[in-house]
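User: Teach me something about this protein's shape.
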Amino acid sequence: ANDPEEVKNIHEAMGKWFIDYVVDSGYSPQTDNVLMKQAIMTTFPPVGSVPGSYTPENLEQVLLDVEKNYARLMELEGFDEEKKGRATFQRVLANARSVIYQQNI
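Assistant: First, the predicted structure itself:
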């Protein structure tokens, strides 16, 4: 989508879908929103420099970062294992803490 209004509508629909999903799954965004925001930011880290500032020199690194983040998401969700289980919120946070710790070493 290139139309700014369409992009805005897609963003709003995605936000509504996410909140509906979280609430339907038993979470309470109104009571633990800071924890949820931290989990989201850990799960979806920035994939490169400021969007729109990609250059021929940094494009390869940006694409590698995107691939690394998607691979990590697949690992968190267990899709890299034969038994495809759903990750619990606690398991995601535990993995996120591990990733943060490893980045600080």
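Now, about its shape. Residues 47 and 63 are 8 Å apart (CA to CA). The chain is about 70% helix and 0% strand. If you'd like, I can walk through any region in more detail.
User: That's plenty for now, thanks!
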